[in-house]
Design goal:
Chain B: InterPro entries: WD40/YVTN_repeat-like_dom_sf, WD40_PAC1, WD40_repeat_CS, WD40_repeat_dom_sf, WD40_rpt. Chain A is mainly α. Chain A has 41 helices and no strands. Classes of the chains: A mainly alpha, B mainly beta.
């Protein structure tokens, strides 16, 4: 039985889903249920016969739909509130308290059913629920609940509760067989759990208590006992040591010689189990902190909170991941012949994780990846489904699910999933917009309500799209700026992420379906008022790259169409311009530039000027170049002329004028300049002009020059290291005011992160640790050794091809940071920095850490290493 | 015995002088390089670490060596110090024996066994050979100069070779482990089984007195047994531990024995009387995995499953217990230590 049963142990599924027509499920559903039924029926014939037809959930729903006559009670008010905002652990606890205080059984049913719908498999709630039905008249209902709950429960306490019930209703000697089966069934499900030791022990006691009349029966009993003992003492159970000594006594009482043999054979596994138990306790300690004291007789129901990703929660999810990886590594060293036991053990662990960490998509994803790697694709798919149900806004789970379904050619399912996912995200955006609107009506006009494009781009000649080209999945808010409240920034970010879903949808349609499908998806996107410009660009580039037959023209038309909607978004305009340049369409590029350059105020238009100037300087004639320079001088009169001149004479970021004629290369080689004010004074004076010369886009013109000997990015300006062909990359877009933009850049997804999944994991964990550490170190001043090491590992500055940071923002960061005084070469200089301008403070503060690269002292040293 | 009980009443629980924290896995082995100021530990976290005994802090970085598969290094189950004390051998999960230069903390050479998981290691007293015992029951004798196996791998019949020790005259090797509750004695040259010394449970630790006359074993039942090597007759049983004795360490004068057990204690034994030295035992929070005396016997370090190593001032403990003379050499019993 065990092997079949192992296979039938499926998934982390909500009970509702168990009724889906999935083959794995049928296995899971029928067999165990039969087992339970056997156990229950054998003991309690009468109750089982008149079992309820109607499921408790249905009953609950019927009740709920009945309008209440009386004025809404506190319970009703709260229930309604929880319908709106279901993720509220305290609210649910309160609702249970209210229902139980009132003592009305239907209301109690409704309460628990509703709770378990939001938090499936919560054993504490299931037990509390069941406790209301443990008087003999109500047994049928209780059994129904047991059947429903046990099917997918990995939790020992529920199984223990079930077995207590089975023992209670099965007291006659004739029913021993059924009890024994119930134990076996429970142990096959949760017998690997370290907390199942009591069940093992109870089972052994139960077997010992069996009466025998013949020697043969006695022999059978001893064999059965031995088998159970032998299984138990190889599992890292909390009481494994006691079971071992019991077993020793037991064997010695039978036969001292065989005892020695048995104990000797079991020793290695037993010692391994004890070793693993210690490690297990260490892992699990922080994952299951003791519950808070309960005010009522019923224990507090632990319901997983919605993540806020604070330090404690990040540590918790990190600890879970470490633990899950450890379980996957097979610490008990099961051999291949016991692979099913290993798999069921890890399955149980993942099921528990998904209950406890229900709202962490990452955990579901790990469960999915592992299950899939075990060659159980159906089950893996179900994990994703359950995960999406718990986390309807998870990008990770939806993307993973869509990709899996795409690879299975379930295209209709992918389409449905994308549509549904977009619906959910759209509702989220609408809601966020409403909140902002009601909070501050002055921002409404600006934020999202851009006109829906009324006319679609020309439909003819649309080609296919390309998958991998879209690089701009990061969320740079093009419109957000310092003046806007954080909510608007949030809305802008959410919108950009929303765009990513459309782009993935388009990508799927292009590669899995056909042109028509791709275009109809894009047409849908165009009708969506939340669609950001990135979707247009992605679609245009897909046409360009994938449709060799006229795709360029279609792409231009898509850009042109986008311009109607996003004409005020400099990033989009820059992209369009870059595209035209890259396809060598000089006339249209020039026309576009002239058409849009007047539309932007000078402080926003600078990147456009720079982009166009780069083109003109490189490919135009001298007269045109000088003319353009003059125009620029008129728009930006405060730029030093020498800087403009130098700008015309750079290539791929090499600014020989700055480096040699203005002494940057020399200044950079003088380390003393930083530490001591006396020596740096002269250089500072010199660099005032240097800095203002190098790149005005590095600072706002109004800002005072930075007194700093050298800037790490003086050489590599915005985008200047890139060739003039090909659309500019995301990081070239300097549209929003620089400070804000750079702040985003700090927050942006780190580069080179997606090497391998494992590496990514590790790096991510490390980042989190760093961030945590960083937070802790905000006040302290020791540079962690790992950071020192890391700094030492950094490649030489010459090889740096990552994002270019603005000097003044970097300075701001350093100013606001507490810099350790350790005198490592790589450490940024501690003192002689001018006080921060007050304006800068407002935008200052550390960016939130989650996905960003490490931003602490080590981040600053990137520049510091140059000195 | 009454003398001891008097001592207990006077004395509070013995506390460690330093707790050396840093390992992130169980501390599996400890050696004392000459000089008495430093120790090296190994751990299932995959690292070796050097510690300053004066301050109880780690010196320098962790010693790690990449595994063949590019891992950060596997669990290190055992370490052994060369008789001269300049080289330490380590044995790890990937089956590799590594020799480390103690001053540099770098691997000098590594020898790949035929099988995974080195469980036990010892160094012959002449420094010419290293013996490694493996998880699956094999033993290999390595020649340090040629870096080749001179004997084995040969199967011991143990399931895990938990303990391996060379006789001081280098002619014999003793092994212990799961399967067969016994010490097995092997000829170093031929690998032939010379004797099997029966036990009631599996043998998990071994020590040979420097005069070669006594072989001492710790076993799963918590007992420590002493055998006469001429006859292989048991001459004493040291009772006290409640759980498997994972490691034993002899003071260089052969008069004092320390033992480490999963009963979370380490204990000291007077080998003149074969009685415990002044209870209470050295109490830990978790399993005690390994134990090692300093060369002069005045310090003892234990390693635990709680990831920490503990330094105990044996000199002071013995003074308090009235056993200070146990640290002196047998021929100088009356001179103060």
């Amino acid at each position: 039985m065990s092997e079949e049963q192992q296979d039938s142990i499926v998934d982390i599924e909500t009970p509702t889903e168990i009724t889906t027509n999935d083959t794995e499920y049928i296995g899971d559903k029928t067999q165990p249920t039969e087992e339970i039924l056997n156990a229950l029926n054998a003991l309690n014939q009468t109750t089982a016969q008149n079992g309820h037809e109607q499921s408790p959930a249905q009953q609950g729903n019927v009740k709920q739909d009945t309008p209440s006559q009386e004025a809404p009670s506190e319970w009703h008010v709260l229930r309604e509130k929880l319908r709106e905002q279901p993720h509220d652990p305290d609210g649910w606890n309160k609702l249970v308290d209210l229902a139980e205080a009132r003592g009305e059984i239907e209301q109690i049913k409704q309460t628990y059913e509703a709770l378990l719908e939001v938090y499936p498999n919560t054993s504490s709630a299931q037990i509390a629920y069941l406790n209301h039905f443990l008087s003999p008249g109500l047994f049928p209902y209780a059994e129904e609940l047991f059947r429903r709950f046990l099917r997918s429960s990995p939790l020992v306490d529920l199984w223990k509760f079930y077995l207590t019930y089975v023992r209670r209703v099965n007291t006659s000697p004739a029913s021993r067989e059924a009890v024994s089966k119930a134990y076996e069934f429970a142990l096959s499900r949760i017998g690997q759990d370290k907390d199942s030791g009591d069940i093992w022990s109870d089972y052994i006691q139960f077997l010992k208590a069996g009466e025998t009349t013949t020697t043969w029966e006695e022999q059978q009993k001893m064999d059965a006992l031995r088998k159970v003992y032998h299984r138990a003492v190889q599992i890292p159970l909390e009481n494994v040591e006691r079971l071992w000594s019991e077993l020793e006594t037991f064997e010695n009482s039978l036969n001292k010689i065989t005892a020695k043999k048995f104990m000797s054979d079991l020793s290695p596994s037993y010692m391994q189990a004890r070793t693993v138990l210690r490690q297990l306790q260490r892992h699990l300690g922080p994952l299951f902190p003791p519950p808070p004291a309960s005010s009522s007789t019923r224990p507090h129901l632990y319901l997983p909170p919605t993540p806020t990703f604070n330090a404690a929660e990040r540590a918790l999810v990190g600890a879970w991941k470490t633990y899950l990886k450890w379980e996957e590594s097979n610490p008990l060293e099961f051999e291949d012949k016991d692979k099913t036991t290993l798999i069921s053990r890890i399955q149980g662990v993942y099921r528990k994780a998904a209950i406890r960490m229900r709202f962490y998509a990452e955990i579901w994803y790990m469960a999915f990846v592992w299950t899939n790697s075990m060659g159980k694709p159906e089950e893996a798919l179900n994990i994703l489904k359950s995960g999406m149900e718990a986390n309807p806004t998870s990008f990770l789970l939806h993307f993973a699910y869509c990709e899996l379904q795409e690879s299975r050619k379930e295209h209709a399912e992918v389409t449905t999933t994308f549509d549904k996912f977009l619906d959910v995200l759209r509702a989220e955006l609408d809601e966020l917009e409403n909140r902002i609107n009601s909070a501050n009506s002055s921002f409404t006009s600006d934020a999202p309500g851009r006109n829906v494009p009324t006319s679609a781009p020309t439909g003819n000649g649309l080609g296919s799209l390309e998958a991998g080209i879209i690089s701009n999945t990061s969320s740079f808010a093009t419109q957000a700026s310092d003046e806007k409240p954080p909510k608007v920034k949030e809305l802008s970010d959410r919108r950009q992420e929303y765009g990513v879903v459309w782009i993935m949808y388009i990508r799927f349609a292009r590669r899995a379906l056909d042109l028509k499908a791709f275009r109809s998806v894009f047409a849908k996107a165009r009708r969506d008022r939340w669609t950001p410009w990135e979707v247009y660009e992605a679609a245009a580039l897909m046409e360009y790259h994938c449709n060799k037959d006229g795709g360029t023209g279609v792409a231009s038309r898509i850009f042109e169409k986008g311009l109607e909607t996003y004409g005020d978004e400099i990033e989009f305009v820059l992209r369009y311009l870059g595209f035209l340049i890259s396809v060598n369409d000089e006339n249209n590029a020039r026309a576009l530039f002239e058409r849009v350059i007047t539309a932007f105020a000078p402080e926003r238009a600078r990147p456009l000027w720079e982009r166009w100037a780069r083109y003109e300087y490189q490919y135009g004639d001298l007269e045109a170049a000088q003319k353009l320079e003059k125009r620029i001088a008129e728009v930006y009169p405060s730029d030093p002329p020498i800087k403009r001149f130098a700008q015309r004479h750079t290539y791929l970021g090499t600014d020989a004028i700055a480096a040699r004629d203005l002494g940057f290369a020399m200044a950079a080689r003088q380390p003393a300049a930083l530490g001591s004010t006396s020596t740096s004074n002269s250089i500072e004076k010199r660099t005032d002009s240097l800095l203002s010369l190098t790149s005005a886009s590095h600072m706002l013109a109004s800002q005072p020059p930075i007194k700093r000997a050298s800037s790490p990015d003086y050489k590599r300006r915005e985008g200047s290291a890139r060739p003039d062909f090909g659309p500019p990359s995301k990081r070239q877009r300097p549209s929003s005011p620089p400070r804000d933009r750079d702040r985003e850049r700090w927050e942006g997804p780190p580069r080179k992160r997606f090497g391998s999944p494992a590496g990514w994991e590790r790096e991510r964990d490390r980042e989190l640790q760093h961030v945590k550490k960083d937070r802790e170190d905000d006040k302290a001043s020791t540079l962690p050794t790992v950071i020192s090491w890391f700094v030492g590992q950094l490649p030489s500055p010459v090889s740096f091809d990552g994002p270019v940071f603005r000097t003044d923002d970097l300075m701001m960061l350093l100013r606001n940071a507490v810099i350790p005084s350790a005198t490592r070469r790589a450490t940024p200089p501690p003192t002689p920095l001018p006080p921060a301008p007050p304006a800068a403070r407002t935008s200052g503060g550390r960016p939130p850490p989650d996905y960003g690269p490490y931003q602490g002292p080590g981040g600053g040293t990137r520049g510091g290493r140059r000195y | 015995m009454s003398a001891y009980t008097n001592e207990i009443q006077k004395k509070p629980v013995t506390v460690a002088r330093h707790i050396m924290r840093g390992h992130t896995g169980w501390v599996r082995g400890i050696v004392h390089p000459p000089g008495g100021r430093r120790i090296i530990t190994c751990s299932s976290d995959g690292s070796l670490r050097l510690w300053d005994l004066e301050s109880g802090t780690q010196m320098g970085d962790n010693w790690r060596d990449k595994g063949d598969d590019g891992d950060d290094g596997d669990q290190v189950f055992a370490i052994a110090l060369s008789p001269v004390g300049d080289v330490v051998a380590s044995g790890s999960y990937d089956g590799t024996v590594r020799l480390w230069d103690i001053e540099k903390g770098k691997v000098i050479t590594k020898w790949k066994g035929h099988t995974k998981r080195v469980r036990s290691l010892c160094w012959s007293s002449d420094g010419e050979q290293v013996v490694s015992g493996y998880h699956h029951g094999a033993v290999i004798v390595w020649d340090v100069k040629t870096e080749k196996s001179v004997l084995g791998p040969f199967e011991t019949g143990h399931e895990h070779v938990l303990a391996v020790i060379c006789s001081p005259d280098t002619t014999k090797i003793a092994t212990g482990g799961f399967n067969e509750h016994a010490i097995k004695i092997w000829g170093t040259k031929t690998g032939e089984l010379l004797s099997t010394i029966k036990h009631d449970s599996h043998v998990s630790s071994l020590a040979w007195t420097s005069n070669g006359k006594k072989l001492i074993s710790g076993s799963q039942d918590g007992l420590i047994r002493i055998f006469h090597t001429a006859t292989w007759q048991q001459i004493a049983i040291l009772e006290g531990h409640q759980d498997v004795v994972l490691a034993i360490s002899l003071c260089s004068n052969d008069r004092l024995l320390a033992s480490a057990s999963w009963d979370t204690t380490a204990r000291l034994w007077n080998l003149e009387t074969n009685l415990p030295v002044g209870p209470p035992p050295l109490q830990h929070q978790e399993f005690v995995e390994c134990v090692a005396f300093s060369t002069d016997g005045k310090l003892l370090v234990t390693g635990s499953a709680d990831h920490d190593a503990y330094l105990w001032d044996i000199h002071a403990i013995l003074n308090d217990a009235g056993f200070q003379d146990l640290l002196s050499s047998p021929d100088k019993v009356y001179s103060a230590p």
